[in-house]
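Sequence in, structure out.
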Amino acid sequence: MNGLWKGVLSLVMMVVFLTATGAVYAGQTDLKAPPPEQSKAHKEIGIESLQYLQDWNCSLIPSGGGKINLTGYTRAYQTVDYIMVKLYLQRWNGSSWVDLGGWPFERYNSSKAEGLKGLEVLKGYYYRVRAEHSLSHNGTTESAKSYSDYYYVE
C-alpha cells in the first residue's frame, strides 16, 4: 500500500472514530444546557383542511439506565387505504436537533397506525421524538408532524 492510500485510510478511520464517539461538532457548545422552550412537545399541520386525519402524536418514555421508548400514532376518522407514523429519534447537539434514525410503522385498510421502538442511547444528552404522520384515501393524502417533550438521559 503506497503512502497516499495509507494517508487516506488513516483519515477515513479517524473520521469514523470521531463520528462514532460524538467528538465531531461545530463550535464549543454546552450539551447539558437545555434546548429552548420552543423545543417542547407540539403538533404541526399545514393550512389544508383535514378530511380523514383525526389525531396524531408521539412521545419519549425513559426506562432508566440509558434506555428509552419511542411511541407514536396516527388516527383517521375512518378506515383509509394507507396510514403511517414514522418515528425519529433526535439528539440535541447544543444548538439544534439532529436525527439519529427513523422507523416507519405502516398499515393498509386501517384507521390507525401506531409504533413503539425501544432503544439504548448514550448518556449525557437531551433526546426527543419527531414523528411524521400521513394517510392516503381515494387519491387524497394528508400529513402532519409532532414532537415530544425532550428528556435528559443521565
